[in-house]
Design a protein that fits this description.
Catalytic activity: ATP + protein L-histidine = ADP + protein N-phospho-L-histidine
Mean pLDDT: 85
Strand content: 15-25%
Subcellular location: Cell membrane
EC number: 2.7.13.3
Number of strands: 13
InterPro entries: HAMP_dom, HATPase_C_sf, HATPase_dom, His_kinase_dom, HisK_dim/P_dom, HisK_dim/P_sf, Sig_transdc_His_kin-like_C, TCS_sensor_his_kinase
Bound molecules: adenosine-5'-triphosphate, magnesium ion
CATH architecture of one domain: 2-Layer Sandwich
Main location: membrane
Length: 491
């Protein structure tokens, strides 16, 4: 079992308590050693003071048999024959408290005796030699033993203060961490309660603690994005189901009616109508597949390509009901998946042709390190507030529904995904008249040698190309405008 707590708060509190205890032990030791030293000095001074007081009395003689016991020091004076001639009250009539004496030239010697004769407990006994005319007299002084920590009061004081400091520090750390972690807990609880149905909820942002504030704000930003993505996915799913259901319902009605009145049914016409529905379903499913592959980040081919020539080749491949004005700069190289870039171009040209009144202008140029492709028509244009919306999946503006019921509303979404997969952008920008779509891609170095027939061999989606990811092209059908847009039939 792991004895160490896993909670951050418990660990920090424990760590603070341990550190505070170590610091207190260190400081207390220093304090007690200092107090012990002081006490030892005091005891030494007491012994020296007693010696200073008693030696003159011995020298003067005669000594009183009972000495005044100054400040609790037990004293005995022994004559040259080791007879106690004078002592403090508690040692009167008692034998010498010790037998040792300094053996060297030193007049002083000290020992701890437990107990000295005639006394109780352990005491430090100090023996002084006093040189008299009749020999060496001895003065014994007994003072209490001084422990290393001085006295009990100092020890109790150190322990008391240490316990108080450790308790206060630990309590402070616990209280402070509890306060700091409170908003984290609130964020955790809110996040735990957020489900797919409560994506509008946000975590509380605390007023203080910058780091936790940042965490809460980041969590809320993430929730914003998640909510946006979830709403988009919901819209996408419901739009996709709706767009898939409509042709299925129509085909079912046609087939049921034909089965009900087989003799009255114009079978070739009915089959053609059902085929149109099937083609539309096929177009939607293929577009959805293309989008799913782009979403999954499928790897792109990256061929160095002259964008002007690629666009020129695509324009000359088909005819238009409106006039095409070309301004195609050469040697503007991009590293791209040609089929996908052609797919963007085809969708832009289809849209432009559908909405243009009389003219479409297509331009290619290099702006520094950016290759720019512009498709501009002279139609009604797209209102500023719809310019981002049209890139959403299944978005078709009302005017387009009237103009062409066959579009899926996925073309621009796919085109933008392709642009972004090439590290570029696709936007709608201001123009005097009509809609101006601008594709920007990073330029790259030209290949060592460019084959003039390079692009003629590139199968275009509009020519029924199948790159393995794009939709298989249905045969061109005059009755279905989208087949021109996707199938690239001539008009
Ligand atoms: N040049 C344009 N002028 C005006 N509106 C346009 C133009 N290009 C696109 N739009 C609007 O943007 C919408 C989305 O275009 P998008 O290409 O994504 O779909 P679509 O053309 O309707 O269908 P498809 O999936 O077949 O391309 C169109 O339905 C139309 O309303
Ligand atoms: Mg389109």
């Amino acid at each position: 079992m792991n004895w160490y707590p896993t909670s951050f708060r418990a660990r920090r509190t424990l760590a603070t308590g341990v550190v505070a205890a170590l610091v207190c032990i260190g400081v207390s030791l220093l304090f007690l050693l200092f107090a012990g030293g002081k006490e030892a000095d005091r005891s030494q001074a007491l012994a020296t003071g007693t010696w200073n007081r008693v030696v003159p009395l011995v020298r003067q003689g005669p000594l009183p048999s009972v000495l005044h016991d100054g400040k609790g020091v037990a004293i005995q004076v022994l004559d040259a024959h080791n007879q106690v001639v004078s002592a403090t009250r508690q040692l009167v009539g008692k034998p010498p408290m010790a037998t040792f004496r300094s053996t060297s030239e030193d007049v002083r010697a000290a020992r701890v005796l437990c107990p000295p004769a005639g006394l109780k407990g352990c005491m430090t006994v100090v023996s002084y030699k006093i040189y008299q005319l009749d020999g060496v007299w001895l003065l014994y002084l007994a003072v209490p033993v001084i422990p290393w920590y001085g006295d009990t009061t100092a020890l109790l004081l150190a322990i008391g203060v240490s316990l108080l400091v450790v308790t206060m520090m630990t309590a402070w750390a616990f209280r402070d961490l509890t306060k700091v972690l409170l908003p984290v807990n609130a964020i955790r609880m809110e996040l735990a309660e957020i489900t797919a149905t409560g994506l509008h909820r946000r975590v509380p942002v605390p007023g203080k603690y910058e780091e936790i504030k940042c965490l809460a704000e980041t969590a809320n930003d993430t929730l914003d994005r998640l909510e946006g993505a979830y709403q988009q996915l919901r819209r996408f799913t419901s739009d996709a189901s709706h767009d898939l259901r409509s042709p299925i319902t129509a085909m079912r009605a046609q087939l049921e009616e034909a089965l009900m009145y087989p003799r009255d049914t114009d079978w070739p016409k009915m089959t053609e109508a059902v085929l149109t529905g099937v083609e539309r379903l096929q177009a939607i499913v293929t577009d959805l597949l293309a989008l799913a592959r782009l979403d999954a980040g499928a790897p792109l081919l990256r061929d160095a390509t002259d964008l002007g020539r690629l666009v020129g080749a695509e324009l000359s491949r088909r005819t238009y009901r409106v006039k095409i004005v070309k301004d195609l700069g050469r040697n503007v190289f991009i590293c791209c998946d040609r089929l996908r870039i052609i797919r963007v171009l085809v969708n832009l040209l289809d849209n432009a042709e559908r909405h243009a009144t009389s003219q479409i202008t297509v331009g290619v140029r290099a702006d520094g390190q950016t290759a720019t492709l512009e498709v501009l028509d002279d139609g009604a244009g797209i209102a500023v507030e719809h310019r981002e919306m049209v890139f959403d999946r299944f978005t078709r503006l009302d005017a387009s529904r009237d103009r062409d019921a066959g579009g899926t509303g996925l073309g621009l979404a796919i085109a933008r995904e392709i642009a972004e997969a090439h590290d570029g952008t696709l936007t709608i920008e201001d123009s005097e008249r009509g809609a101006r779509f601008v594709l920007r891609l990073p330029v790259c170095d030209p290949p060592p040698a460019v084959d003039p027939d390079d692009f003629s061999e590139t199968r275009s989606p509009s020519a029924g190309a199948d790159d393995g990811e794009d939709r298989p092209r249905p045969p061109a059908r005059e009755s279905w405008t989208i087949s021109n847009a996707r199938g690239g039939g001539t008009s």
